[in-house]
């Protein structure tokens, strides 16, 4: 059975963090209520594409992330309370017997954006899926082909999306729940909570911000935070206060250059290190790198920049885990 509940602000929440509990609804669409919204348009895209890429030479011949062989078997061998990075933003986690699949993209994004590393998992490899969580509607996070195959194989799975995004799911998805920020679907006692992110929506020509976006917290006896796509923002502290002692924070370390274009929507590794501090999580798993070439920096640059950012912040390097595609571990 699936229940739903609202996550209330903690009683000791600082007044400055209250804005992250405000409604993101705005007329017929959605916005980030703290005032930082994507202001880049078609002319900005042209400006970006016309500019010289300082990374162009470095991108030639660079290796990509390693891929774990027999990744599904390694996951199955672990006890309950486990997690696997499937590549890009795709994450699989099992907590208290409930298995959630987040942002599954197990192929290419359109024919034009091929995978740089093969998928470590196929849909046929997946264990029984109880819930599929989609962070937002961009095609590298909501891949219709992958979602359709998952729905066909697991017809009883619950598909949980931000408000307005359910209509973008394939018809094969029989059970769909849409949430706003700080709402949670509950599957056998495990909360699947949508939390704020600093991002935006567009999937077609005329649907700008007609669907919401967000990150996810999967919480039972263990807890996992998945940021989705996001720029750096104070909402990380709000999430950390609402969900203290997160076991793992899955945070992006790629697709951040050039900063003038990406800063409001994608963090750079310095932002990732600070976000991890604000969240108060025990461990960080890196994602959103090494799978697709989406921005100026090489797809495998994230781990190098993350190491430098950790040193600059004098953070605990042992808390940050950059793993191969398909890697699994206990929470």
Search tags:
single chain; 331 residues; alpha/beta; Metallo-beta-lactamase, Chain A; eight-stranded mixed beta sheet; seven-stranded mixed beta sheet; 7 helices
Helix-strand layout with pairing:
Elements: E1 2-6, E2 25-26, E3 29-30, H1 42-50, H2 71-76, E4 82-87, E5 90-95, E6 98-102, E7 131-133, H3 144-153, E8 158-162, E9 175-179, E10 183-187, E11 190-195, E12 215-219, E13 223-226, H4 235-242, E14 248-252, H5 259-262, H6 269-279, E15 283-287, H7 302-313, E16 320-321, E17 328-330
Parallel strand pairs: 6-7, 7-8, 8-9, 13-14, 14-15, 15-16
Antiparallel strand pairs: 1-10, 2-3, 4-5, 4-17, 5-6, 10-11, 11-12, 12-13
Task: Please characterize this protein's 3D structure.
- Helix 4 runs parallel beside helix 6 and helix 6 packs across helix 7.
- The chain has one domain: Metallo-beta-lactamase, Chain A (4-Layer Sandwich).
- The model has no long low-confidence stretch (mean pLDDT 95).
- 50% of the residues are buried.
- The protein has seven helices and 17 strands.
- It starts with a strand and ends with a strand.
- Strand 15, helix 7 and strand 16 form a beta-alpha-beta unit.
- An eight-stranded mixed β-sheet has the order 1-10-11-12-13-14-15-16, with helices on one face. The chain has a seven-stranded mixed β-sheet with strand order 9-8-7-6-5-4-17. A two-stranded antiparallel sheet has the order 2-3.
- The protein has 331 residues and is of the alpha/beta class.
């Amino acid at each position: 059975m699936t229940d739903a509940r609202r996550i209330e602000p903690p009683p000791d929440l600082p007044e400055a963090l209250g804005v992250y509990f405000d409604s993101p609804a705005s007329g017929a669409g959605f916005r980030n209520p703290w005032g930082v919204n994507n202001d880049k348009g078609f002319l900005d895209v042209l400006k970006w594409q016309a500019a010289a890429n300082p990374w162009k030479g470095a991108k030639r011949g660079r290796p990509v992330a390693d891929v774990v062989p027999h990744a599904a078997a390694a996951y199955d061998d672990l006890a309950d309370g486990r997690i696997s990075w499937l590549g890009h933003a795709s994450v699989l986690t099992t907590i208290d017997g409930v298995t959630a699949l987040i942002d599954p993209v197990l192929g290419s994004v359109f024919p034009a954006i091929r995978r740089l590393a093969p998928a470590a998992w196929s849909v046929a490899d997946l264990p029984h899926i109880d819930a599929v969580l989609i962070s937002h509607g961009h095609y590298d996070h909501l891949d219709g082909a992958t979602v359709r195959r998952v729905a066909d194989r697991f017809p009883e799975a619950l598909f949980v999306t931000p408000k307005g995004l359910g209509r973008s799911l394939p018809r094969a998805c029989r059970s769909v729940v849409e949430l706003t920020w700080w709402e949670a679907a509950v599957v056998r006692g495990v909360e699947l909570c949508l939390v704020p992110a600093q991002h935006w929506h567009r999937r077609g020509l005329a649907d700008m911000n007609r669907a919401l976006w967000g990150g996810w917290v999967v919480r039972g006896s263990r807890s996992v935070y998945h940021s989705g796509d996001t720029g750096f923002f104070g909402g990380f502290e709000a999430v950390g206060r609402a969900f203290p002692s997160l076991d793992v924070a899955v945070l992006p370390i790629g697709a951040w250059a050039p900063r003038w274009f990406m800063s409001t929507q994608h963090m750079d590794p310095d932002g990732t290190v600070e976000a991890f501090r604000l969240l108060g999580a025990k461990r960080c798993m890196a994602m959103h790198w090494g799978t697709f070439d989406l921005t100026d920096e090489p797809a495998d640059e994230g781990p190098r920049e993350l190491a430098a950012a950790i040193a600059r912040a004098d953070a605990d390097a042992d808390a940050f885990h950059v793993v191969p595609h398909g890697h699994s571990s206990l929470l």
